[in-house]
Design a protein that fits this description.
The protein is an alpha/beta fold. It is 43% helix and 23% strand. The termini are far apart. Bound molecules: S-adenosyl-L-homocysteine, 3,4-dihydroxybenzoic acid (DHB) and magnesium ion.
C-alpha cells in the first residue's frame, strides 16, 4: 500500500519514544506468533492509547470482547488498580490458552479472567451474574457482531462508561453502503447505532500505522 512505509516509520518512532514494548508485552507477541495466532493485535501505540483511556476513565472494571493472545488485555489491565477486574471474552480455546499464559507472565492473572466461548453466549451469562458496571468496554472480536456487542455493553455499563470499537474503517471500505462484506456491514451497523442511540455520544477516528488504514470508534454512555 502506498504510504505504508512512512506510516511504519512513524509508528516505529512514536512507539520507541512513547509506547515501547517491555519484556512482558514483547514476550506476549512472540509467544502468540509462535503459537500461530494471527497478527491482528493492536499495535503498541494503540495499546498505550487503550491504557491511557482506561486511566483517564479511572477504570476499575474493564470488559474486553476478543482476547486473541492477550496483548491488548495486558495494556488495559495495567491501567487497573490491584483490586480491579478485567473480563475478556474469547471464542477460540487455543487463543485463550495462549492469552492466559501471557497474562500470567505479566503478573495480571489476579485481575484478569478470560472466558472461552462465543461472546453472544458469554454475555448473557455474564449479565446474569449482575456484575458491577464496567467502566470501559473494548470491542474487538468478530466485526459482524460489533453492534450486538455495543448493545450488550449498554446493559453492562453505567452513565460515564466508555465503549471503544476497533477496526471500523477497514481500508475505507466502511463507506460502501452496498458492501456485502460482513465486517463492513457490521462496522456500519455499529457506527450508525452509536450515532442514533439516545444513550450514546460517540465519534470515529481514522488511523494509519503499522497495521495499515483502519480506525476506531469511541462512545460515552450518557445515562
Ligand atoms: N484484542 C486483541 C485482538 C483480538 S482479534 C488484541 O488487540 O490483542 C479478534 C479475536 O476475537 C480473535 O481471537 C477471535 O478468535 C475472537 N473472536 C472471533 N469471534 C468471536 C466471538 N464470536 N466471540 C468471542 N471472540 C471471538
Ligand atoms: C482483524 C481483526 C482485528 O481485531 C484487527 O485489529 C485487525 C484485523 C481481522 O480479523 O482481520
Ligand atoms: Mg482489532
Amino acid at each position: 500500500m502506498d504510504g505504508s512505509r512512512i506510516w511504519d516509520a512513524v509508528d516505529a518512532y512514536v512507539t520507541a519514544h512513547l509506547a515501547p514494548d517491555d519484556e512482558v508485552t514483547a514476550a506476549a507477541l512472540r509467544d502468540s506468533e509462535a503459537a500461530g495466532l494471527p497478527g491482528v493485535n493492536v499495535t503498541a501505540n494503540q495499546g498505550k492509547l487503550l491504557q491511557l483511556l482506561a486511566e483517564i476513565q479511572g477504570a476499575r472494571t474493564v470488559l474486553e470482547i476478543g482476547t486473541l493472545g492477550g496483548y491488548s488485555t495486558i495494556w488495559l489491565a495495567r491501567a487497573l488498580p490491584a483490586d480491579g477486574r478485567l473480563v475478556s471474552l474469547e471464542y477460540s480455546p487455543r487463543h485463550a490458552e495462549v492469552a492466559v499464559r501471557n497474562i500470567a507472565r505479566a503478573g495480571l492473572d489476579q485481575r484478569v479472567e478470560v472466558r472461552v466461548g462465543a461472546a453472544l453466549d458469554s454475555l448473557p451469562l455474564l449479565a446474569d451474574e449482575n456484575p458491577p458496571p464496567f467502566d470501559l468496554v473494548f470491542i474487538d472480536a468478530d466485526k459482524v457482531n460489533s453492534a450486538r456487542y455495543v448493545e450488550w455493553a449498554l446493559r453492562l455499563t453505567r452513565a460515564g462508561s466508555l465503549i471503544v470499537v476497533d477496526n471500523v474503517v477497514r481500508d475505507g471500505r466502511v463507506v460502501d453502503a452496498d458492501s456485502d462484506a460482513e465486517d463492513v456491514r457490521g462496522s456500519r451497523e455499529a457506527l450508525e447505532l452509536i450515532g442514533a442511540h439516545p444513550r450514546l455520544s460517540g465519534t470515529a477516528i481514522q488511523t494509519v500505522g503499522a497495521k495499515g488504514y483502519d480506525g476506531f470508534a469511541l462512545a460515552r454512555v450518557l445515562a
